[in-house]
Amino acid sequence: MIRTRFAPSPTGYLHVGGLRTALYSYLFAKKNKGKFLLRIEDTDRERYVADGVANILKSLYWACVVPDEGVILDKEEITQKGKNGPYVQSQRLDIYKEHAEKLLADGHAYYCFCTPERLTQLREQQTAKKMPTGYDGHCLSVNPEEAKKRAKSGERCVVRLKMPKSGETVFNDMIRGEVRFKNELVDDQVLMKSDGYPTYHFAVVVDDHLMEITHIIRGEEWISSVPKHLQIYKYFGWEVPEMAHLPLLLNPDKSKLSKRQGDVAVEDYMKKGYLPEALVNFVAFLGWNPGTEKEMYTLDELVADFDFSKVGKTGAVFNVDKLNWFNKQYLKNLSNKDLVKIATPWLAEAGIDIDNKIIEGAVGLERERIEVLSELPEAIKFVFNLPDYNAGLLVWKKSTADEVKNILPKLAEFMNTISVRDWNKEKLEEKIGEWVGQNGYSTGSVLWPMRAALSGQEKSPGPFEIAEVLGKDAVLERINLAIGKLSN
Question: Which of 169, 240, 263, 388 allows an S-S link to 268, with CB 3.0 to 4.6 Å?
Fold first, then answer.
């Protein structure tokens, strides 16, 4: 069975790049009737954030990228599911210790007693000589039995992997094809730190093997570490999973995507009111090209069409304008009722009564104009509270204040004759249009002040749409208020 995993570190939030990695892992597993697993890699204790796991789970479940196994949410509680646990690395320290001792016993790893000061000095010397930086194998010369005694006596040390220093490491990447590394350029990686915690490079191999992972999908920043990982697989005699290293996500200026140029956390997009379907659809296209003109995909359609052969090698630009386009498309497809429902948190925070009888009509006015849900309260607040505006707003650019003073009272008088039964956009447009023509008015000289009087804004939806939502009484009240402004 195909088994993939997403293995984030709980260092604060889920990066959109992490969401893409999780999504691709999920899509590949589901397409192949396999399992998608979530493992938490929390061995970097200095960067550990207490609510980091909760944030990761909240973001993944919001995006509907739900793990089959591993760390999961069960009725809002964080728990673990599966036979290969625990799925949190800090709960697996004895497992790593046992495997490190086996490598030591077989002569594939060694204790290193070098101080941080010596290692810093070594890097500085290598840099000064323009040499590749890396460990120089200094502690390889220490007798293994002596090293073992020193370690057991409590002397500060780490465990390092013994890498071959000749030949090449070659592997086939599902995206990049054949990749080659010269072993002489790969240093002896630390496997176990002095605090008893494993490094990423050791834990990831042990965990992927014991959790029966068949395909490893991760960012290209890890590709240079593959020779170390493959050597560990070789020393243990384990089967190596297939690997796919995803291209970087880039800012529009082609630099690596970073918070300095915009939001990078899934949580940021959740708070702004992007729909999960839109973000997932957008993220799927960051590196993957189905080869068709189709852009709007459901999650099930992504599962059906996803293929690593269509994932590119070059970095993908994170274009927020394109994300906004996706979000607008999904917002347009919602009914007014559903739009109110999903926008409730933002509307409630702004003090807008979602039980108001005209709320659905109000959101319908702006649904074509907003890009994210957080824009909706500001966009529709004029419906519930007419903003204070200057009388000059009522005067169309090709008209005069005197002309508006003459037209608005007559418009109000005519609109008062329109029955409530005919009070809808189509009938209002028809009847007022006829009235404008019969009186020889220009369209702009009537509709501009009507719209301005109803919205109190320079830019707003059309006057007939607003009038239908507000209802007859509120419309006449606002037009009479405008007439009063012109009289002052």
Answer: 263
pLDDT digits (tens, 9 = 90+) for 311-346: 999 999 999 999 999 999 999 999 999 999 999 999
| Cα separation values, 254 from 249, 261, 262, 268, 324, Å | 9, 11, 14, 22, 20
Name, in order, each residue with C-beta under 8 angstroms of 158's C-beta and a sequence gap of 6 or more: 111, 112, 190, 191, 192, 193, 194
Of the candidates 478, 488, 341, the residue with the CA atom closest to the CA atom of residue 401: 488
Assess whether 259 carries a catalytic annotation: yes
The predicted-structure confidence for 217-255, as pLDDT tens digits, reads as follows 999 999 999 999 999 999 999 999 999 999 999 999 888
CATH of domain 336-384: 1.10.8
3-state DSSP assignment of residue 73? strand
| 203 C-beta neighbours (distance < 10 Å), count | 25
What is the CATH architecture of 391-487? Orthogonal Bundle (1.10)
Could you state, in order of their start, the residue ranges of all structural domains in the chain? 3-89+249-317, 92-246, 336-384, 391-487
What is the C-alpha separation between 102 and 192, in angstroms, rounded? 13
Q: Pick from 364, 474, 367: which is nearest to 423 by CA?
A: 474
pLDDT digits (tens, 9 = 90+) for 160-201: 999 999 999 999 999 999 999 999 989 999 999 999 999 999
The pTM of this model reads 0.92
Catalytic residue among 102, 165, 256, 259: 259
